[in-house]
């Protein structure tokens, strides 16, 4: 399935956004806190050398499945490739162990986030995912939250909800402009 690149996209994205220091305040920390514990642990284990490798190989690994991406990374760091594969396998094991509704929701969410790399499409997809999450049956949400507790903080976050409500009639382009403005002011 297409969600094989989840860990790779997540890690490369994190490396680009946070550039090594673990955020400890503001919106960057809030975003970091929404990540699954496995991803946070992996991210905190990254060295400057690991981040440099991921940045340098970014164009070669984006869009590749985990096995191919790990083989590319292995040419520079076998340890990093092995840690990334472990992260991928752990997250995918949790998703694949779920019942159909939460499993399909998470698989579709990951596919959407990987489908387009430009920011406008990503924001549009993220908004669709958040709205779809609101429609999930309670049991499905609880199953997701048991495996990925931080997603509850994201799906049920008052700030996220308020932002969605305030911008429900705006285009993805307008939302991206708003987000960029917020990032530049923080």
From TrEMBL:
Signal peptide coordinates: 1-19
Cellular component annotations (GO), alphabetically ordered: extracellular region
Cellular location(s): Secreted
Keywords annotated in UniProt: Coiled coil, Lipid-binding, Secreted, Signal
Pfam families, A to Z: Gp-FAR-1
Species in which this protein is naturally found: Steinernema hermaphroditum
The family this protein is said to belong to: Belongs to the fatty-acid and retinol-binding protein (FARBP) family.
Domain of life: Eukaryota
Ranges in a coiled coil: none
Protein name: Fatty-acid and retinol-binding protein 1
Molecular function terms, GO-annotated: lipid binding
């Amino acid at each position: 399935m297409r969600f094989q690149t989840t860990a790779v996209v997540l890690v490369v994205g994190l490396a680009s956004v946070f550039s090594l220091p673990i955020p400890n305040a503001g919106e960057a920390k809030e975003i970091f806190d929404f990540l699954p514990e496995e991803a946070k642990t992996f991210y905190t284990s990254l060295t400057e050398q690991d981040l440099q490798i991921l940045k340098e190989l970014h164009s070669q690994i984006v869009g590749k499945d985990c096995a191919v991406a790990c083989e590319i990374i292995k040419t520079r760091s076998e340890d990093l490739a092995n840690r990334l594969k472990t992260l991928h396998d752990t997250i995918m094991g949790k998703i694949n162990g779920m019942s159909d509704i939460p499993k399909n929701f998470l698989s579709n969410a990951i596919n959407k986030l990987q489908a387009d790399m430009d920011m406008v499409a990503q924001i549009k997809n993220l908004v669709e995912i958040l709205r779809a999450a609101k429609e999930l049956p309670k049991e499905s949400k609880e199953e997701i939250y048991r495996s990925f507790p931080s997603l509850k903080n994201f799906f049920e976050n008052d700030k996220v909800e308020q932002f969605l409500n305030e911008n429900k009639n705006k285009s993805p382009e307008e939302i991206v402009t708003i987000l960029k403005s917020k990032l530049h002011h923080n």
